[in-house]
Amino acid sequence: MEDVWIMDYGCSRHMTGHRKWFSSLNPVSTKEYITFGDNGQGKVLGVGSISLSAKLSLREVAFVWNLGFNLVSVSQLLDEGIEVGFKKGVCRVLDAEETLVCSLLPFGQVFRVDLTFVSGPTRCLVASPSADIWKWHRRLGHSSFDLLVRLSSMGLIQGLPKLKAEKELVCHPCRHGKMVATSHTPVSQVMTSYPGELLHMDTLGPARVASVSGKWYVLVIVDDFSRFSWVFFMEFKNEVFGFVRDLVLRLRNESHKAMRAIRSDNGKEFRNSRFENFYRDLGLEHQFSSSYTPPQNGVVERKNRTLVEMARMMLDEHRTPRRFWAEAVNTACYIANRIFLRAILGKTSYELRFGRQPSVKHLRAFGCRCFVLKKAGNLDKFESRCLDAIFLGYASSSRAFRVWILEANQVVETCEVFFMKLCPAQLLPLSFKVMMKKAPPSLRMRKVRLMLVMQEPLHRLQSLPPLLRALMMMDDSCLRLPLHSPDDKLKQRLAPLRTQER
Ligand SMILES: [Zn+2]
């Protein structure tokens, strides 16, 4: 048995009784004992690292006096972000990048680590990830890699580093999001000569689900010259007038150049006496796009499509609940204004409107996890200083971030946000995989009914419960699952959650 490693669900850590396996071994300073299944005890002599194969290394392995076996702890693997799954009687161990690390073969009632195994990646989403281009691809609403490279080489955006084009970059959310091919007819001429001269507007909706604040519709307004856009969220379509009036008046105040016209479709929300009176008072012309040729009325429709597409990919990436669609559309608009390039004018929408370059230094990936600092004051000495939150975009009137605080189930705007630094591979969508049906009978006897396997290393995520809670809130399907953990340690951590199952 000394050359066989066994996958064990019961043990809390990797352990062996054979010194020869260790590549490094440190003595332990305190007396530590391991209790075995037969209630016997083994003294821990040291802790060290073991390299089982080129791809599978074990850290923090206990060297236990008189232990006849070599055990790989499943829970410790899970903690390190390694995934363990079963398929047709074979157990497969995958690392955080979903590369097959080793496979396990049935060995009596247990699984044995197959050390002869050598393989290439089973599934690789990221062919040759370049940290920067991935980071910015996600922060900038999954905009195309080509655009990112072009923008970075033109130096039109502050805070955007030089990005290199990489071959075969495939982004998962993008694949899902960009199901419908969009045809962008390039516009070869500029019809207007200054920002605010002509505004295009259109409404979108109703959405399938109401947003968190109870909105169903979006009003999208695009400035023809800069293609700078605004989005407003509405419960009813007749709220359009209020938003248009406020924006028109604001733009008139901002610029000394006169607004000339508004262009919309024939929708009732745009064609009514309130609008007629308002336009007449300001001397604005109301153009109806139906009477124009498609390339001209397409401005706002194209923008709609872009925003919806970006929003969908942003929601997809971290599986943010659909009720945050308005936050996603709002963020998409915020990003689009900063990175949309009017190629013919060689500037971004933002620069065309404000006369200065946009900065993207503060941008973060929508839906990513973050922490919000609690207000000092009535904090207990041992109470956590941080609240777990999900990033939902940018405040419209300040430099604050919009975040969803999980514990309070509340969306707030705050500057006190900390983001987790993740490397590109870990930025792959979080996924909890349920592997229950395929567990062999021997494991089922041990009450392994469900395994939660995650792609992000646990030790980077500080604690499991808040994360699970977040995922449960995000994905309703999680709520129905019985949470039976293969291991006591994990079970303890899951206990507070189980009471919250609705
Ligand atoms: Zn993408």
UniProtKB/TrEMBL annotation:
Keyword Membrane appears in the UniProt entry: no
InterPro entries xrefs: GAG-pre-integrase_dom (IPR025724), Integrase_cat-core (IPR001584), PolX-like_BBD (IPR054722), Retrotran_Ty1/copia-like (IPR039537), RNaseH-like_sf (IPR012337), RNaseH_sf (IPR036397), SH3_retrovirus (IPR057670)
Molecular-function GO term, any one: peptidase activity
Coiled coil, from the record: none
Gene3D superfamilies with a match to the protein in the record: Ribonuclease H-like superfamily/Ribonuclease H
PROSITE patterns, per the entry: INTEGRASE
Keyword ATP-binding attached: no
BP GO terms, sorted: DNA integration; proteolysis
Keywords recorded for this protein, A-Z: Hydrolase, Protease
PANTHER family linked: CYSTEINE-RICH RLK (RECEPTOR-LIKE PROTEIN KINASE) 8, TRANSPOSASE, PUTATIVE-RELATED
Name the UniProt record assigns to this protein: Integrase catalytic domain-containing protein
Source organism per UniProt: Paspalum notatum var. saurae
